[in-house]
Amino acid sequence: QEFVRPDYQEYLSNHALVLSAFLFSIGIYRLITSRNMVRALMYLELLLNAVNINLFKGNIFSIFVIAVAAAEAAFGPAIV
């Protein structure tokens, strides 16, 4: 009898998609209902991180998210 190794890559990929969808839905809901601009930026960052989890092989988009995070870091304290 031959031992069959389970495919862990597909298993982890499915969990990453579920986590990404969960974070994205929370981010959309909170972004729409947020009245505070700083919190809205925080939930926008949550949305971008959810997309990053979904596209964990997309290097270009990760650089875009880092650039947006840097812009938020510069813009966030100016609001306060």
TrEMBL record:
Pfam families: Oxidored_q2. InterPro entries: NADH_UbQ_OxRdtase_chain4L/K, NUOK/Mnh_C1-like. The keyword Chloroplast applies. Belongs to the complex I subunit 4L family. Its main location: membrane. One of its GO terms (molecular function) is quinone binding. Keywords: Chloroplast, Membrane, NAD, NADP, Plastid, Plastoquinone, Quinone, Thylakoid, Transmembrane, Transmembrane helix, Transport. It is a multi-pass membrane protein. One of its GO terms (cellular component) is NADH dehydrogenase complex. One of its GO terms (biological process) is ATP synthesis coupled electron transport. This is NADH:quinone oxidoreductase/Mrp antiporter membrane subunit domain-containing protein.
